[in-house]
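User: Please fill in residues for this 148-position structure.
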């Protein structure tokens, strides 16, 4: 699993000019599912995301979690996080999970994070989405199998 977390002041995702998800202060999460990912791996990522302290406290230190600031989450499926560009100029996505497995774990991720946070919006799996955001900081974190 590969996840990019962007701390945002606001973010939204549209499909065919229709806004299907938008948030204010919180995280825009780009989620890539790999061939070897499981529900147990998803659970570990969610636990890490919930506990991350990347919001600024009253002393200017990044010491507050998403829950501490009552933040929201927008999750967007993005298999391109598995792009392998080591050979040639055309990315290879051989390590990304197939659509059925990726959608299953994406939905599992959404359900689990909604249970724990409540304020969660989502993109549309497999759709041509347009994502816009106002990055806060900017502050961007990458989580992959080496970090969780």
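Assistant: Residues filled in for all 148 positions:
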């Amino acid at each position: 699993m590969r996840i990019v977390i962007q701390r945002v002041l606001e973010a939204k995702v549209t499909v065919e000019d229709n806004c299907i998800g938008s948030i204010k202060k919180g995280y825009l999460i780009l989620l890539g599912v790999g061939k070897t990912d499981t529900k147990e791996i998803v659970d570990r990522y969610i636990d890490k995301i919930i506990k991350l302290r990347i919001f600024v406290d009253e002393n200017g230190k990044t010491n507050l979690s998403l829950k501490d600031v009552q933040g929201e989450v927008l999750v967007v499926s993005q298999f391109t996080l598995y792009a392998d560009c080591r050979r040639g100029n055309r990315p290879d996505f051989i390590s990304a999970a197939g659509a059925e497995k990726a959608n299953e774990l994406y939905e599992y991720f959404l359900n689990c994070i909604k249970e724990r946070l409540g304020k969660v919006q989502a993109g549309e799996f497999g759709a041509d989405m347009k994502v816009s955001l106002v990055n806060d900081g900017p502050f961007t974190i990458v989580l992959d199998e080496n970090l969780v």
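For context: The domain at 2-143 is CATH 3.50.80.10 (D-tyrosyl-trna(Tyr) Deacylase; Chain: A;).
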